[in-house]
Design goal:
Layout (H helix, E strand, L loop, with lengths): L14 H14 L3 H18 L1
């Protein structure tokens, strides 16, 4: 909420999905899964905190 930014929380992420996203990025330099995680969590934060 500092500088009017929305807080980002990773509370609702399945640990296995997060680990797979890490692995995909590490092995294939592909950020698609991380992008989806970020967007989903940002939408969650907006719904939850605002």
């Amino acid at each position: 909420m500092h500088y009017n930014h929305c807080p980002l929380s990773f509370r609702t992420i399945d640990a296995t999905y997060y680990k797979k996203a890490n692995l995909l990025f590490y092995e294939q330099n592909n950020i698609t899964a991380f992008k989806k995680i970020f967007i989903d969590q940002f939408e969650f934060a907006v719904r939850t905190y605002f």
